[in-house]
Amino acid sequence: MKQKFKKYIHSKSTKIVLAIFVLGIILDLLFPLPNLKQYSKQILSDDGTLLTAYLTGDDKWRMRTNIEDVSPELVKAINEKEDSWFYWHIGVNPVSVVRALYSNIISGKRVSGASTISMQVVRLLEPKDRTYLNKILEIFRAVQLELHYSKKEILEMYLSLLPFGGNIEGVESASYIYFNKPPKQLSLAQAILLASIPNDPNSRRLDQNNEDVKVARDYWINYFKDHHTFSDKNLDDAFEEPVEFNRYAVPVLAPHFSYYIKEHSNGDVIKTNLNLRIQKTAENLLYNHVQRVNPKGVTNGAVLIIDNKNSSVVGYCGSADFYDAASSGQVNGVIAVRSPGSTLKALLYAYAFDEGTNTPKTRLLDIPTDFHGYEPENYDLKFYGNVTTEFALRNSLNIPAVRLLQEIRLENFINLLEKSGFSEIAESKKNLGLSLILGGCGVTLEELTRMFSSFARNGELHPLAITKDDLEDDNKVQVFSKASSYLIAEILSGFDRNDIADLSNYSQLPKFAWKTGTSYGKRDAWAIGFNPDYTIGVWMGNFDGKGSPCLSGAEIAVPLLFDLFNSIDYKPEKKWFSKPEDIIKRKVCAESGLLPNKYCSKLVTDYAIKNSSNNLICNIHQPVYVNKNESVQYCTECLPSNGYKKVVYPVYAPELTVWLEQNNYNFKKPPSHNPQCQAKFTSDGPRILSPSEDYEYLLEENSGQEIMLLAASDSKAKFQYWYVNDKFYKKCKPGDKVFLKPENDELKITCLDDKGRDESVRINVKYY
């Protein structure tokens, strides 16, 4: 009988427990916990320093607080003061409830609420009137809270939601606003003071001078001494520490960076990779530099610094002074779309190296050229003739870059830029032309600096790691080869160039490569530099788009770039890049940059990329049959029987020959072809350089304005014959300028050489 009774009781108990468990699940589903409150968004530097925080949607300073970021004294004080059994109960302390109920009945009024920290969190999340019914609901919610969250999470909620007067909630907010320091750095006196405020937050605010604040603090100091919570000596020191009444502003460091993070990141505590030492250095250098160049009509600038080890953003200055309204200081120059000037040339040449069309010693033409109506000039308004690729890039020559872009095809280069994240270029690609390479497009400092960082990472383009979470993103794109990246670094690290700064102030300048840019109208000045450690982008200009005669990359941006490298990387971890295994050395003709033929006498050493660079043979140095005094040239059809000799001459492109002659260059030129020769030639004939079919010529009526006729021919041609609308007009020597007063609206211009070869163009003429 006794055994049956025990079984019955056991069965009954099991059913009751099970019923309570099921009921609890049903109630939990029917009455879920209230939503957590919105926290202020906090932006932290790489070492955890608070850069800034933002008000919540309900205008509260309510910063999420992690226990690890709070002084142990403050956590201990709050636990001992509010709920010493916090780690032992399941949301409600039965002993405290019974004691509070007894005290309230005996006194006839509410003396104690027996609220645990868990119950207080519930009340902070879901405020209700203090009634016995609400207390019962509060107990249910507290148990519910304990089932959903760990003790650590509940305590962190409590620390984050405690009221401290006005719109200040949470110990993190209170610590910064009342003491101007993070809660981990609070003294014992400050910790006890903060612990005492939530009991009467609006009467004990530290932004209002109130004696009750000190009375409350001293009461709890004595309480903790009586309960031996802290050592007597530390509590005696805390008692002597004065109470200071202040309200500090929440820190505002790196404002452009912080606001960018706020707008582009989720979560309320965002840990970034910004290095405060580098950031402050960059801010000071940028501000001081802008002050120096301000008299030259330059009022602002921006700087972006990338750590090449992991593509993390360690420095970010959107303007020289965020608070300078007169210069639009709140505009973020890092993400503003501007003209890149010549900075994209480095990307073009890297692409050409990978495509195999060029090596550093490959020769390019820098002569006046009409690109279908587009006639660019160099920055210094000079032309340099036949130049090497490395000279053209290092000195940022315009004509070779446009010629090269035309050769590799504009759409191919645009595809590279689009793949690399240049959003404005991607959106407007249908409207872009060859002027893109000289700045006829829009980019941001962020895009440009990131792209240049690929040269420092073996041609790999990595996403910018702005936050700690971004470091996990390894979605890289191989935009260049390791070899071409190395060649660009070598070329752009040389000092024999026209954008060099005064080096007298730099005793420990680390080695780095850099490219400058100046936009049309001198509205933007750029300098982007990189070495194994950092990639630094500098933009200088005016946010209203106003230009300045002094605004150039070399004069305005390069000095700041040098200052930045000299300050943040004066002792680089790695001296320079290692030469890739597929970079080979080879001898090439000095005048073409191509592999020498047997007639090339002057050779130079060049770098090439194995299995990529072209293996074209030089065609400049050619043997020519001439008479004994080298005054007449013979072809195989007219070789004289009374003697001749074979002499090697450089045979340049006809347009280069014309330019060299016009500019009085002394060069060895083959003599004119035998005038008695009657042979017909089928090779390329004259090339009309002017006029161009791409123009519509607009002339003033009765002004006497003329159109220039100019054509280039090879050395076999002795004379050129010009025809207008199939009627003979004038005879001249190759390269001579002929001028025409047009009499018709539509003209067919033909140039015929004395070897029977010709070329024609058609142009339209309008008068006004």
Structure characterization notes:
With 768 residues, the protein is an alpha+beta fold. Among the domains are: 1-30; 41-240, Penicillin binding protein transpeptidase fold, CATH 1.10.3810; 254-338 and 443-580, Beta-lactamase (3-Layer(aba) Sandwich), CATH 3.40.710.10; 687-767, Immunoglobulin-like. It has 21 helices and 27 strands. The strands form 9 sheets. Strands 7-6-14-13-12 form a 5-stranded antiparallel sheet, with helices on both faces. A hairpin with a 4-residue loop joins β26 (746-753) and β27 (758-767). The protein is elongated, with a radius of gyration of 40 Å. 41% of the residues are buried.
> How far is the N terminus from the C terminus?
126 Å
Proportion in β-strands: 15-25%
**Count of individual beta strands:** 27
Residue share in helix: 25-40%
Low-confidence stretches: none
The averaged pLDDT comes out at 88
Taking strands numbered 1, 2, ... along the chain, how are they ordered across the largest sheet? 7-6-14-13-12
CATH arch. level architecture of the domain at 254-338 and 443-580: 3-Layer(aba) Sandwich
What is the CATH third-level topology name of the domain at 254-338 and 443-580? Beta-lactamase
| Name of the CATH class of the domain at 254-338 and 443-580 | Alpha Beta
Please describe the biggest sheet, giving its number of strands, its sense, and whether it closes into a barrel. Answer: 5 strands, antiparallel
Radius of gyration: 40 Å
Count of alpha/pi helices: 21
Q: Which geometry do the CA atoms define?
A: elongated
Q: How does the helix and strand content classify structurally? A: alpha+beta
CATH-level-4 superfamily name of the domain at 254-338 and 443-580: DD-peptidase/beta-lactamase superfamily
